[in-house]
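Q: A reviewer asked whether we had any structural model of the full assembly, not just the individual parts. We don't, so I'm hoping you can provide one. Inputs are below.
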Amino acid sequence: MSELLKNTIRFILFILVQVFILFKMPPLHRFITPYLYYLFILWLPFSLSRAGLTLVGFVFGLCLDYFSKTPGLHAAACTLIAYVRPFVIGLLISQEGADKNYISPSIVSMGWAPYATYVLVLTLLHHAWLVLLEWMSFGSFLYFLGKVVASTAVSLLLVLLTELLFFRKQKFRTNTI
Amino acid sequence: MRNVFLFIRRHFNFLFFLVLQIIALSFLFRYNKFHEAAFMNVSTELTGRINEKYNGIEYYFQLKRTNEALVKENTRLHQLLKDNYEAPDSNRRLIMDTIKVDSGRTILKFNYLEAKVVSSTTALQANYLTIHRGFAQQVRPNMGVVGPQGIVGTVVNVSENFATVMSLLHRNYKVVVKLKNGGERGTIEWDGLSPLFVTLKDIPKSAKVVKGDTVLTNQISSLFPANIMVGTVYDIVPDNASNFYTLKVRPSTNFFNIEYVYVVDNMQYEEQKRLEDSTRKKVQ
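A: Here is a predicted structure for the entire assembly that you could use as a starting point for your response.
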């Protein structure tokens, strides 16, 4: 399956899962909103240019916004993490040229610890920006802090489950450099 | 000039990011004021179709509860029928009816339009419902929405066949209500803490309030007919500094499994609004 097709299917699936499963769940606590959809942006291939990545992030976020009737909220957060992603990868990638030898970021291509840091940093950034925008219209500082921490914890758990359930096989590609 | 182009080329990624971020933020902050922003009409139509497909499946699992709610509502309405009340005749003289106009239609104030809920959320801070009835089926923005058990929210945006309803569980939602016992007016808001409770403010401390009191709609709000169930007082939040009560109210509508609602069309609202607006102009 080509990368484009694979990512298009992922695009649709992540939005549907977020809208029809995670948003429909009975709320556990006011601080907890389970977010998983942004994992789509973390899984995008290395080869995408930075402008392309930012644009995909924006469009992806806006699609979710039209379902949750909050135009701009998720789009802003997704644009931010899509823009920051290449910097984080540049800092964390351990092997020389791993971003050329593998298709997309994963435990196999980046190594366990760098990949975990990568997910943690972008999750925190995504949630912080999202809740900050929500906080501007209502809420208090305690709400901001509590929601960022609690939602990040739940999101990380969901990401871990997804990574274990849907293990992505990554082939080592030679002759590419 | 050349330097400007060089600057743009050099920092293209960052500038592109800034532009997208500004577009997103302008959507967000304009949307809170005007619900027409950001192609919402077109997207409501599209997301509504997808939601409808999903609801077709979900609805099946709710059939039993929906049926129970509708039967209960039917019983309540049956009990209101005029034919159920009969007193022994005590009239002594014949009274001629002097009303000459038979105009049931023109004095009808509230018209109920039934609608199916195709999507709803309760987990967010800004919760909306989407109903499968839109502009082509007489739904307009600013109409009240009630369910079989009580009030649900207000229509904020309408597309051709779908409409978006701002639910009681929205941080910006406000509606004027009254206590059933004393008739004191107050405002219902949601504090975002739990979807099981809303807050009732502005009831003066002179009112007698006990836990379990019924809260009803007030005709002042002009969106809803008077005396429609809103909820019951669950708790009185102690606040000695204020002259007003803060009451925790449990909404009678179950937002987790709502399937059918009625859009309330106030047929006399236009005239009332026109009069109020012209009064405001005259006084100024």
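A: Points you may want to mention in the reply: The mean pLDDT of chain B is 85. Chain B has two domains: 2-31, 40-78+108-268.
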